């Protein structure tokens, strides 16, 4: 509805009202004077109504203008609190006051919500930070004094809270691990209460204390309990080892020992106490059978010494071995010596294993050489005996130099790998001298056999005719082995003093020795058997 139609409508209303008033006044018979008075009153009423309407509209317009100005001031104030640049109000001169009012009201509402959300986020972060700092014992990050934080301040506080939450997760994991480890040690030491066991499954955060001091206290407590548990384990192992040794030496029934160890498989104070009671019983039984026990200890010592390659002089020098009569002190000395030599054998297990392997192969080599001297074996060809013998000889020929090389390499590198400590002696001599003595004995025996064959050949030659004697001597007396370089001498090559050539020299020497260990009649017999 436009202004013109509005005016026309008001005119129609007034004209209709005036016409109706004329009719009423005509019917009532009002005089002209009364009618003038009443027309004057009506004019005043209409004029007052128009004045009131104008007054109200003026006040409404003024309020709109004032609200627009207030909106502008509040927008600038909130924008300053939010650390925003001076906002653009988004109005033009063509906008009416109502349009300006609506635009500014919307802009103010948006900024007010932004301020409120920041304040709420700040309060939430501050509460979370306070809870985390009280739990972790860390210092709080104090924001700026302004009531409304900036985006940067909120981001910094949010990052600090995230770091605290990450620290809480890490410390909580450490706390739970320490708690379970401490409980495990307490259970192992039989000091845990049922309440502690029940609390282990409760992961409630209410009773947590994740400060650095508390974590350090828990670590110290765990270290102390772990040390006590390790002591208990060492005590259990020591008692178990002594129990096994005494049980074996006293010839006690083995199933009973196995049953006892199964019952006491966990190293708790009660199981250790039970094992110690049984150990005390066996120790009393040991004292009651002193002579038998000492005899068995000496037998075990002999076995340990033989596996460590000791000489008789070294054995006799062991304290307690030759003491008479047997006393408890003698028993304790022998037990300590047995434990000492068992540990010595364990520390040099690799070396002694190689020496035993070398000894086994060397004995097998001597057996094959002795076997090769027996002419009767040429007639016994059942089951491929000669072929098997030749295979065994080839195997020894390959393995013996390899074992000797490993043994010499371990011997030469022993001081470097054991901080300058000298290598163990074998029968009172070094490993190199021991190997040299074995080969020297072997070479001396071969030389003796060779001289004996020569003497026998001379006797046969003096009895038989010259032609037959020469043929028999040529057939029965083998000469030195020939190689591509010529006749191989029985004399062992001299040892080079330079360490870098020692291993190669022993390898070549072992190969030559094994070639010398194959007599010509053994090769001929193997070919004939094939």
From TrEMBL:
<dbReference type="GO" id="GO:0005737">
    <property type="term" value="C:cytoplasm"/>
</dbReference>
<dbReference type="Pfam" id="PF03999">
    <property type="entry name" value="MAP65_ASE1"/>
</dbReference>
<protein>
    <submittedName>
        <fullName>Protein regulator of cytokinesis 1-like</fullName>
    </submittedName>
</protein>
<dbReference type="GO" id="GO:0008017">
    <property type="term" value="F:microtubule binding"/>
</dbReference>
<dbReference type="GO" id="GO:0051256">
    <property type="term" value="P:mitotic spindle midzone assembly"/>
</dbReference>
<dbReference type="InterPro" id="IPR007145">
    <property type="entry name" value="MAP65_Ase1_PRC1"/>
</dbReference>
<feature type="region of interest" description="Disordered">
    <location>
        <begin position="460"/>
        <end position="530"/>
    </location>
</feature>
<dbReference type="GO" id="GO:1990023">
    <property type="term" value="C:mitotic spindle midzone"/>
</dbReference>
